[in-house]
Amino acid sequence: MKITVDFEECLKDSPRFRATIEEVEGDVCELESKLDKLVKLCIGMIDAGKAYNAANKQFVNGIRELAQQSTKDEVIESSLTKFAESLQEMINYHTILFDQAQRSIKTQLQTFVKDDLRKFKEAKKQFDKVSEEKEAALIKNAQAPRNKQHEVEEATNILTATRKCFRHIVLDYVLQINVLQSKRRSEILKSMLSFMYAHLTFFHQGYDLFSELQPLMKQLGGQLDQLVVDAAKEKRDMEQKHSTIQQKDFSNDDTKLEYNVDADNGIAMEGYLFKRASNAFKTWNRRWFSIQNNQLVYQKKFKDNPTVVVEDLRLCTVKHCEDIERRFCFEVVSPTKSCMMQADSEKLRQAWIKAVQNSIATAFRDKGDDGEKLDRKSSTSTGSLDSGGEPKERSLKGESALQKVLAIPGNACCCDCGQPDPRWASINLGITLCIQCSGIHRSLGVHFSKVRSLTLDTWEPELLKLMCELGNKVINQIYEARREELGARKPQPGDPRHEVEAYIKAKYVDRRFIRRPSDEELRNKVISLSKQEKRLSSSSEHLPPRPPPPTPKLRPGSNVSGQSVKSADSGIQNSADGSREMLANTPSNNSLADADAAESPPMPMPATLPPPSPCKEMVFYEPKEYSPGLQLYWASCARSLPDMAEALAHGAEVNWVNTDEEKRTPLIMAVQGGSLVTCEFLLQNAANVNQQDTQGRGPLHHATMLGHTGQVCLFLKRGANQNAADIDEKTPLIIAVEAANADIVTLLRLAKMNEEMREAEGPYSQSGDETYQDIFQDFTHMASNDPDKLNRYQQYDPQRP
Questions:
Q1: SS3 letters across 37-81
Q2: pLDDT value, residue 57
């Protein structure tokens, strides 16, 4: 209702003015009540909207969990993930809408009520007061007696002053009324219009979002129709199969068990048998037995690792047992023990006896046909990628990263919760993870764990070998050494995420379950690692000698006069026999590091060129203090990845500097040890690829001086500065040219050319030259899988013009 109070009318103070004022005051009072109610309703709407959003978020999280549970069905997983993302966007739009309602309705109208209506009420109080004073002045003036002049003058003066004050206040009051009426319209309309525009934006955003989603929904609708048809067809087929099987005669079902030596899964025969325990009570337990890889094994549950009854069937015999009370029994006897078993029927007993006899015959035949054939038992138990052995290399061709990594003992289940069939890995820890634990590892940050997919990501050869050198079993022996002692419960598959997350943080961030070594243990460990290099060198004496090179080789530790001293690399160039002796007490597949260490023996020096200063022979000096950093330092040289992982777990700084050894770092010592995998492990754990020693030489300098082509390739890929010069002002390229190492010269020049091309293409260039990428990829694969191809120094002829 629009009410305008005339300024002229207010000065008259007529009954019309008073009636208008009374009407305005009643309208303002009612307006205040309605606005208060609207603000309260808005607050209730916002609170209800927040509760709706919270419930909606829980629903969306339920959809995401269902998508994660459906990882084996790509259509369901991708669709539910997309739907969850869209619904999450709608929740965000709702949140924006309620924020706008907060600003436009609640805040704006509350401000209008508190500020403008309060000013109106204050003006009304002043008006009422001055009206009463005017009325009193008029009455006093009228009552003044005519014969008392001083009273007449006093009443007249008071009335004049009161009227003057009344006119001033009533004009202000009328102004306040008119301003309030005008502002009332603008404030209410502005508030509601802002709120309606917020709704318009909300529905536009929702429409645009679901317009993008509509093609996927239509596609899924078409697929759903086909799925309904296929489901109906499958149901009919299953009902028919059910009816057919139901009509079969199962009385002779025992004959279905047959021996098949050529089975695809390697299991020649399997089935349930009763097994007599070797305890004093001679109890009988039903177990699932199988004959595979010339072994007799059994399992209690499918997820359990098979228990081997007979390791080699060639050494055992099988016979009937008729001298015990139970029926259908037979016995498998080996040189060390015998196992009594019972079948469910006579036919099954005969079938098992025949299967064992056939397996014995097959094992002898296979052994006689090929004396060099790899033992099946070792092929299933090993997890190392021995790049130095050709049979091993051939057996791994065509296998995916998943198959290679999961073949390592303990890697078939998640390292942290035991979930079988993991599909993710932490590359700096060397462990496999399920999808839930991989997400928790990502949240820790890359300084704790770098997560990569075993199925979706591309795996470099050196990184794949690193994964196969460590594994869940090795890392858990370090990070869970005191778990049982502390009474901590390890998570199981299906446990709540917050429990698994708390355990993982305690394990890797707080390192609560690590067993800290005593000072004496640490000292013994460091001394043992420092001596392992000599044992490696001595182990080469039992291997076939290599053909002599055409020129004398300068090895680390050689003197100028020609009296060569055996160095660390002399024991690296062959196979894994010495490394197995060195790491007999280490729970890891370290044969990989030893084969990898053979990738590049030291280069010969041309007779006409002064040789670069080689790295000194590894000599152990009693340090001032034994620390995890010193353990990492010598373990890097000894190529012992488990000891390196243990040192890092105990707090070793990956870029620790040995001030007693020319400020060398663990990465420089890994170059000395000649292992590509050791260098990769340190780089994955944030080692500085450009850190220099007191001679101004970084890892790239040392790898070039020793002729380790694979390490040079690795460091260049990881951003090593090839322009850095040592105190003799020699860059790696100058050293490689003086040593006439064509492979390293090629790599360094290609890297420099690629860097110049990328600078010319602009700051946003990422790809580089394709030739550079192809050549570096070839060198990477050779260094990891066929290091002998990099030993080209034997063709070098210093007399060639």
A1: HHHHHHHHHHHHHHHHHHHHHHHHHHHHHHHHHCCCCHHHHHHHH
A2: 93
